[in-house]
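Hi V.,

You were right to ask for the full record rather than a summary. Here it is.
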Amino acid sequence: MSRFASQVLVRLDPRAREPLQTQLCASLRRAIRDGVLQPGTRLPSSRSLAEDLRISRTTAVLAFDQLAAEGMIRTRAGAGTYVTDPLPVDRGRPSAAAAPRVLHPPLSHRGAALASTPRASTKLDGPARPFRLGTPALDRVPVHAWTRLAMRRLKAMSLAQLDYADPSGLLALRQQIAEHVCRVRGASCSADQVVVVTGAQHGLSLMCQVLLDPGDTAWLEDPGYTGARAALTAAGARIAPIPVDGDGLDVAAGVSRAPRARLAYVTPAHQFPMAVPMAHDRRRVFRVSMPMAGSSTSAASARPCFPPCASAS
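Predicted structure:
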């Protein structure tokens, strides 16, 4: 069967009661309605389709004629046959009554909670504007320089470098990150303590997975980053919202509400979204309070975070 025929799931049964052109027409109509064949897609010629399906060309022509009469395909002189763009409103989507009901397996409690978590950002149309989350200064990205460097690196790669590597990331990169953290943040850090992730959300999810068991309690700034809430929810944590004021996270309120918390998510240097730093006295109290809350194992914590916690600047 041709690639086109397999793509649209053409199934012809010579023993069926319906004529072959009716079966072919139904397969193409379904592919168009389901979006497998998008508006503007070029269809093979009736001759090519007939040869691929091993049917007469008349059968293919009759199927095309029927779809053209329904307004779903259109022939351009000298250019071929295409799916109509845009599709007729009454033909492009099956009606609610005609659409088959698809039963999906129910979500787990954790999945339902995760699905109801607000997104960290909403993409808005139009130019960049102040206070829009999740959209960096894309106009400042050095696309040409980045492309040139990426191509140079790809051309120099060996076969060994195309294979699976250390899941923690390239050793040379982790060494540079460790040196930067030691120099800029004053942390005691080595390359074997660095894990390269694909983004902040990946890092948050990874920390929650290795630090939390389902049912553990975690502090979360209120208001705070919804991406952190999503990561905690996905890990099955019990979230304890802790208020934030002009001095940052209210540690006393956290100790009062959830004294046995296993983990705390806090942004001490530049709180999101209120942009306040965490007061020095609260940082000191936090260091004293948090180790008493969870278990004594804090090997997964990394300085300068307050163990056991997830800290972001």
